[in-house]
Amino acid sequence: MTLLASSNHPGSPSSFIHAANQSVLVRGIPFAYRDLGPRTQVPLVMFNHWGAVLDNFDPRIIDGLAKNRRVITTDYRGIGGSGGVAPLTVGEMADDGIGFIRALGLDKVDLLGFSLGGFVAQDIALKAPERVRRLILTGTGPAGGTGIDNVGSVTWPLMLKGLLTLRDPKFYLFFTGTANGQRAASEYLQRLKERQQDRDKGPTPRAFFRQLKAITAWGKQAPQDLGRLQMPTLIANGDNDIMVPTVNSLELAKRIPDAQLVIYPDAGHGSIFQHPGDFVSKALAFLDA
User: Fold this and answer.
1) Domain AB hydrolase-1, which positions (predicted)?
2) Do 272 and 114 touch, CB atoms closer than 8 A?
């Protein structure tokens, strides 16, 4: 294990917006991460959405989860503060994730994956089940899932709409168009700006497009045997996810043994950001069960 910055120990920051940027080498490539919360529990390792860097994790959710457990967030290879070139497959991202967990010296972890991160978390759990105690999958779907290979054609018009209306595309991609959805979008996007110091680098266009290729390939991939996932699993989504259609969450719940399913009404892809308090309480109850 080669650390470029020492891990936090008790006395680590109490809020995500003050967590130090750290780095660990995985097969010679530096992976950026932030690490907070007490060392009393199995650590929770989190993987985020397409194009996301460390500053795209919702600080309200991270802080809520980190009250009584260690929470580790990371950048994928080739994006944000991580080195190397962004992989073209989810499988490579999962291999990186397993290498990252090993490089931090963690024997057993809980995983939380949102969107693309949910694809990665599933693949890690299938490849290294001995390392995963519990699994949380949000706004995501299985390999070969309905509409996943269409994410580009869904996304581009709404990114253009964001440009034309001078609004962040997440208003349209992650949230419903109702008053509730748009209010939640504004609050979420404000939270993402709370960190003022040492912000992460944004994604390059090259990394963004390479990750899209990986997502499209996942959508066309043969289904995996999710019956092999024997660890407790919690699945959450909104009832109107246009990026990874909600039917995929129902499919995950059907195929993963004894999975728990939460569907939020009048919510989209970013349902957990629309209901951060409720999601944190459900996630903590699940992790502590």
Assistant:
1) 43-276
2) yes
Q: How many alpha carbons fall within 13 Å on the CB side of residue 111?
A: 33
Sheet holding 44-47, edge to edge: 22-26, 29-36, 71-74, 44-47, 109-114, 132-138, 233-238, 260-264
Per-residue model confidence (pLDDT) at position 148: 97
pLDDT the model gives residue 12: 63
Summarize the confidence of residues 249-265 as an average pLDDT. 98
User: How do the domains of the chain map onto residue ranges?
Assistant: 16-288
pLDDT in tens, 104-120: 999 999 999 999 999 99
Kind of pairing, strands 109-114 and 132-138?
Answer: parallel
- What residues contact 203, with CB distance under 8 A and at least 6 apart? 51, 52, 53, 79, 80, 211
Tokens, residue 149:
């290979």
Give strand ranges (E) for the chain.
Answer: 22-26, 29-36, 44-47, 71-74, 109-114, 132-138, 233-238, 260-264
Q: What are phi and psi of 85, to 5 degrees?
A: -110, 135
Q: How far apart are the first and last CA of the chain?
A: 32
Tell me how many degrees the CA angle 259-279-234 measures, rounded to the nearest 5.
10
- Rounding to the nearest 10 degrees, give the CA dihedral for residues 50, 206, 53, 45: 60
Which conformational region is residue 152 in: left (phi greater than 0), alpha (psi within -120 to 50 degrees), or beta? Answer: alpha
In this predicted structure, the answer to whether residue 1 has a pLDDT above a threshold of 70 is no
Whole-angstrom Cα distance, residue 163 to residue 38?
Answer: 41
Specify the CATH superfamily of domain 16-288.
Answer: Alpha/Beta hydrolase fold, catalytic domain (3.40.50.1820)
